[in-house]
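Much of our argument rests on the idea that a fold can be written as discrete symbols. Part of our work consisted of pairing the sequence of a single chain with a tokenised description of its backbone. No coordinates are needed to read the tokens, only the vocabulary itself. The record that follows shows the chain in one-letter code together with its fold in token form.
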Amino acid sequence: MLKQKQQIRENHLFRALSDEQLERLFEATTVRSLQPGEHLFEAGARADEFYLLCSGQIKLYRLSPAGQEKVIEIIRPGQTFAEALMFLDIPAYPVNAQALSNTELYAIKNRVFLDILRGSVDTCFQVMADISVRLKRHLNEIDALTLQNATLRVVNYLSHLIPACDDEVAEITLPAAKNIIASRLSITPETLSRILNALSSKGLISVEGLHIRVHDVDELRAYGQ
């Protein structure tokens, strides 16, 4: 329980809450554990909760009428998701959520958090800022899908994974299997492998499984411009 309170308290979305408000939030929070491949929710289900991921990974995806999977986002520890849905008249999840590994997360009741928001202006602004950032990111992704070729998408995705530092060399790990990353970038797994091999041939990166060593961070970033 102490660990749960600490993780929630440290999340930027809840930092503006008073101790009393946090206690109300804790009372409306349950812990969920998922096995790899297990679904948290499916598209169309009523959205009564939003989530804070503590450990593991969650894949958000949709299925086409033909059954083809499109990965929308890969949620990593520390991220919240599905909170924007609480503002809908009849909230429903627009995507499927599936665990990619052993996963633990906190499920927070929408109705309780909405009541808390009415008494915390700062938290309201933080939620609005989060939603705005995600909207901007999704708009940038739409631009990338329509204006960039596959190689630029991969290069920019790798650049996004590089930690913020001044080092010339960087070590990164793909957050999911390559076929999932490929779906996230709207390319085939074969195309992703071909692009990674081409970047390796140019001396920009070295690839070993999901681990990638970037030999020249600035050169890789410049390649994506």
In short: The chain has a mean pLDDT of 87. The two ends are 47 Å apart (CA to CA).
